[in-house]
Specification:
385 residues, mainly beta, 8-stranded antiparallel beta sheet, 29 strands, globular
Length: 385
């Protein structure tokens, strides 16, 4: 994240002796990005985080993609997917490229292990459900509308509240996810024109230190496979930490929409910046106020990007035949725009109550074989009227 935070007990000076009650040393760990030149945090463990009891190769993580097809717009209906498994096991990869993988997950159970993604940051958008994101940085209570942003290397698990339905959109980045640079000043502080600020970001609220022996599993995703790391002590043994790198929650309802006299481009909805993609939030907002304004978006060609929209709630002002949990893919190379009647029908309307998440990538995306079974084959012809 962009600002300093700390929890628990830490020594006065970094890289100095910090003693446990029995006289032994706490074990300092630096977790940072971009070598030693990015944001970082220092964590203090009861046990060395390097003490691994056993390593097992679990499985490959290869994604199966559809064969080459004609370029066209796509619509996936995920509302019918069955809920099962935990927050990792229930993930269904749908759309991906070398920079990002977009999945949905409908977990029904708590994770009985912890998880670490070694290649980049993750954003988990909570469409439905409440529960706890637990990591060595502490706990974060999540609720519908939350973006859970988890830096690479963090050890975490999700514990849904019992009996509460869960639906999640998962964005795995092969790199780092950050606030757009145009929202920040040279010191990393959010500027006045930014659509959210530090007050809207929820760091871990409590640090719980575990001093337990046994067999504890951390599932590591890296280099095309899952590896199981078994420890003889609890992985969440941190007594304190400080720094600028930590998981956080940001709720989509706290995004402050930027509106104008005439229709604003999608870039005003940008929420995060990722490697080769941007993530945007479409939230309820007032429409344009020019007397001749057309609130619905104009037809546009995504010349340099593929556009993915995940529909959360409300009636989307430019689309017909869309439901909660729908995902559309509008690839670069061909124009898209409002459905017939939606352009003219938006004139005179004062506001929209739509809620959606958009991911625009700058390299072409591919559908997985999982996605094919969910596709609305008639979507590409829906502009005929």
């Amino acid at each position: 994240m962009t600002y300093y935070y700390k929890l628990g007990n830490i020594p006065h000076k970094r890289h100095t002796q910090f003693h446990q009650t029995d006289g032994s040393l706490y074990h300092e760990e630096l977790m940072g990005t971009r070598g030693f030149s990015g944001i970082q945090s220092l964590l203090y463990h009861l046990y060395p985080p390097t003490q691994i009891q056993k390593i097992l190769l679990e499985s490959k993580t290869d994604i199966s993609y559809e064969e080459s097809v004609p370029l066209c717009h796509r619509h996936l209906r995920t509302a019918t997917l069955a809920a099962q498994g935990d927050a990792i096991g229930s993930r269904i990869p749908l759309i991906a490229n070398a920079d990002v993988c977009i999945s949905v997950a409908l977990p029904t159970a708590s994770m009985q292990y912890w998880y670490r993604f070694a290649h980049g940051d993750e954003v988990i958008f909570i469409h439905e459900g409440i529960g706890v994101l637990e990591s060595q940085y502490g706990i974060i209570r999540y609720r519908p509308g939350d973006y859970l942003v988890i830096p690479t290397g963090v050890v975490w698990r999700i514990l849904p509240d019992e009996g509460v339905e869960q639906r999640m959109l998962v964005v795995e980045a092969y790199g780092h996810i950050e606030p757009p640079k145009r929202y920040l000043n040279q010191y990393g502080q959010f500027l006045e024109h930014a659509p959210y600020c530090e007050r809207d970001i929820r760091p871990p609220s409590a640090l719980i230190t575990h001093d337990e022996e046994g067999e504890f599993e951390v599932l590591l995703k890296a280099r095309g496979g899952f590896s199981r790391y078994l420890y003889n002590h609890h992985p969440l043994d941190v007594v304190g930490w400080d720094g600028h790198l930590w998981p956080f929650a940001f709720n989509i309802e706290d995004f402050e929409p930027i509106t104008g006299k005439i229709h604003q481009p999608p870039s005003v909805h940008q929420t995060f910046d990722g490697p080769g993609f941007v993530l945007c939030s479409f939230v309820p907002r007032m429409f344009d106020y020019h007397p001749q304004a057309i609130p619905a978006p104009y037809n546009h060609s995504n010349v340099d990007s593929d556009e993915v929209l995940y529909y959360v709630e409300g009636k989307f002002m430019s689309r017909k035949g869309i439901e909660r949990g729908s995902i559309t893919l509008h690839p670069s190379g061909i124009p898209h725009g409002p459905h017939p009647g939606m352009y003219e029908g938006s004139i005179g309307k004062e506001r929209t109550n739509e809620l959606a998440v958009m991911i625009d990538t700058f390299r072409p995306l591919r559908l997985t074989t999982n996605a094919i079974a969910l596709e609305d084959k008639n979507y590409v012809y829906s502009w005929l009227g």
